[in-house]
């Protein structure tokens, strides 16, 4: 017999029509696969998934995604940051008075090379702000003078390019604030406009500097005195006010990592670590409203999205308004560097695990999904 | 002038004794010292430029069953490799590695992934290592990997019989018709055998190299194929010529062995293709293969045209040449690693080369009773070779997709 038989057989591999013609190799397949189909209908109840889980006695919230999840845990201590702590870790800098009566807020940021574990067992040679990805979530109040002292301890030229209103000299692009390793630069501008913004490195090549981890949240809270029509809303947004304390505020950055540098991401996440909030759900008290500051910095894919399960939310695109730009939605899209504020409540819900994820299934399945653990409010 | 190397004085006139072997200690000491120095002093550290280690991974076996996917990996990195995560169709899945931990260079490990694969559809498995490197493995058509079962063995045996044993038997049935062959016809038929064997040789070598390229890098696939074919060729020539060049029944037996070894490799390959998802083999195609392989039977019959073999000889020859196809398909359907298929095909190639040499020698002897190779390409012989090649090539068209 010639090799032609083999070639024929191999050609048939890519031709499903031939396969459906039946044959010896399909014997026994039907029963196996029909049982799988049944199992697939109840999401999270794969027969085999259940087998895999029973041994490990996985927590109940993990049964929602069955066996489809990364294996193991990330060493947060070695990374130097914990994704759960990142959610509420706002950097407010130091506040001093200026001679003209205004406030001066000063931040100190360093660029550092650092190898981080972006998924269990997977190391990524990151470029970071202050040794973490995403960089520190900076928070200021509308009208303040901001001074950001930036030092480059990395191996490449870096900068901080703020999305905000400032002069060309302070833009953080080549020739205006991109500094060589070992150098220092001070960015100075007024905090405006209020909203949910971001900063990122604007060295070239841009894609490489962004996707290696150089980005962070930059939130400017509205000054209630400047918004007499929406004083209460502005007060609730003002970090540290009694009205703001009622809210459960969360900082989330949708990012991704191309670990083999082929121009496509291997891992997607919210706050860097794939599946971190699936394995450690975010605790939400059902009596208190939730506000998410959400930024998309995913490189290589033009858009990312956020979908909330079992609930709807109001959305403030870029956070520059005090009234929602979208009302009653359960899904929003963000292009690269787009951001916004999500407001919702679980006040009238049962307690339980509520999923959130990108509604690009591929992103979800490659790590960008998590859970809210909604619990009764303790008085 | 001592130009003739035979007149060089021997290196030593003393009889080699066991004491000479003691000198082997010296090179051993030098080697061990060099290794220790390299490990202790690390003089090559100047070459470490911060680049990650070289990683290489080959998937040797793929098994699909009701538990999901099981894949056998062989690592070929410069350092032991750690599989950190596993994707199936761009989604991370739980997996169990056996044995767990880093996989050393040349070592294998099984990965079990509880993935609900879909019958008849394609899946892609991606292994992500701790450095973030990825290795893809395609499952072109997902079908359950055949298991050893009575009915499965029987249907595979029937397939093997139709494409391996039956055509050889039909070819051998031409024996009575060919018996009256004259000298020129005989030369033509022997040359035709050479032609068909040459077709098989080229076919087998190309296929062996194809499988070799799928095997893990540590096996150096193409070098392995060439060396094994050469060793197999030399071994069979040496065995075959213990009592002079084989003729008659002995030569027919060697042709049958060569074709049989080739068919075993083919069977492995076809079995592997079925394990990997090819199915729906049409009746027409099976008949095409039968037709294509009848020529092989005629080739086996030619050397015994001038003697009177018994019926049992014909039976034996048919089983020897065609039977291995059945065993090949049985083994191959259990998803054997590609390097084993390459090795089997390479042995077959060596065996075919051997019978080409022996049949050619017989053709040459046909002229004036001595091995005059200058006369080998008379019109009858040349026509025979071309006819053999053309017959194989043309019948191959029947089954070419």
UniProtKB/TrEMBL annotation, chain B:
Keywords: Membrane, Transmembrane, Transmembrane helix
Protein name listed in UniProt: Metal transporter
Spans through the membrane: 21-39, 153-175, 187-206, 218-239, 246-264, 270-291, 311-331, 343-364, 376-399
Signal peptide residue numbers: none
Annotated organism of origin: Sinorhizobium glycinis
